């Protein structure tokens, strides 16, 4: 397809058109997906580094497209955000995760991703309160994962939002730490209970001489000093568990302890207590 210069240009243009058409088609399909029951939620274990006990699960949305099959959230969440559809979808994930987690044993927590679009909606605390009330889930068992994206339009209203959410008694986690426009100022201002260290830092950190280990170490020291927990994300191999433990990270999440699973399987694993 790229045999000559003119061809390269023409095909590039067609690829872009094709991409835009694909996006538009997904957006159209996304519009009715909630009503058609095409979403479900899966749960990935979060484990205490100390003893490999399962302390919670992260809720991750899945879309089963009737023709395309599973579409990854990496593909459809940005489209949902640009079209505003993330608001009803995100609310559905929150209510579903709260209802399913309320059936899990003990103090096992559920973490739910909250898009910056949802965070900018003044109704969010009301929606969270309603999800807690309807499910009967204790507030301290719900953790909201927020990315640095919420700070892009930093304003007095984001301070008010953090305060309202904390008043409900839910936990707050700063997701994908280190990948965006990280500013240490965010950590000073916002009342996070946990920092999630992005998997790009974990990747390769067990290799001798890798700078990622030094970065993880610095993040853990900072978080611990500020009284926050830390979760290393995307931990895939045993060598990485040992390294993460050595760096003092309090929690581990990744394929090494479990892939995202259905709510019933999560309930069973929570009852067992250990992921190892
Ligand atoms: P995230 O919040 O950083 O979620 C973690 C992602 O890493 C998940 O991908 C998970 O399956 C994957 N992962 C976990 N352990 C490992 C590992 O050991 N190795 C590798 N290679 N990957 C691992 P997933 O489910 O495809 O989700 C991708 C992103 O989509 C999420 O990243 C999050 O940003 C977004 N997302 C998913 N569900 C929701 C949702 O309900 N609401 C919103 N707003 N965003 C969501
Ligand atoms: Ca997350
Ligand atoms: Ca993350
Ligand atoms: Ca991510």
UniProtKB/TrEMBL annotation:
Cleaved signal peptide residues: none
UniProt domain EAL: residue ranges: 23-274
Domain of life according to the entry: Bacteria
Protein name (database record): Diguanylate cyclase
Phylogenetic lineage: Bacteria, Pseudomonadati, Pseudomonadota, Alphaproteobacteria, Sphingomonadales
């Amino acid at each position: 397809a790229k045999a000559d210069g003119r061809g390269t240009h023409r095909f590039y243009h067609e690829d872009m058109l094709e991409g835009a058409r694909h996006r538009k088609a997904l957006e159209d399909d996304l519009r009715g997906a909630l009503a058609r029951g095409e979403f479900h939620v899966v749960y990935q274990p979060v484990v205490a580094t100390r003893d490999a006990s399962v302390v919670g699960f992260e809720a991750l949305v899945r879309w089963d497209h009737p023709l395309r099959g599973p579409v990854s959230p990496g593909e459809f969440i940005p489209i949902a955000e640009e079209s505003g559809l993330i608001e009803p979808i995100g609310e559905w994930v929150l209510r579903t995760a709260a209802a399913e987690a309320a059936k899990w044993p003990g103090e096992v927590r559920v973490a739910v991703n909250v898009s910056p679009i949802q965070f900018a909606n003044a109704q969010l605390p009301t929606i969270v309160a309603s999800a807690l009330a309807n499910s009967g889930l204790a507030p301290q068992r719900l953790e909201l994962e927020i990315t640095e994206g919420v700070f892009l339009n930093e304003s007095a209203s984001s301070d008010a939002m953090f305060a309202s959410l904390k008043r409900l008694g839910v936990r707050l986690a700063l997701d994908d730490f280190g990948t965006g426009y990280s500013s240490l100022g965010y950590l000073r201002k916002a009342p996070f209970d946990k920092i999630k260290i992005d998997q790009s830092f974990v990747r390769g950190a067990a290799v001798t001489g890798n700078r990622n280990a030094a970065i993880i170490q610095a993040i853990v020291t900072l978080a611990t000093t500020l009284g926050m927990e830390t979760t290393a994300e995307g931990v895939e191999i045993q060598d990485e568990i040992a390294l993460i433990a050595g760096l003092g990270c309090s929690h581990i999440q990744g394929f090494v302890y479990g892939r995202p699973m259905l709510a019933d399987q999560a309930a069973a694993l929570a009852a067992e207590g250990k992921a190892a």
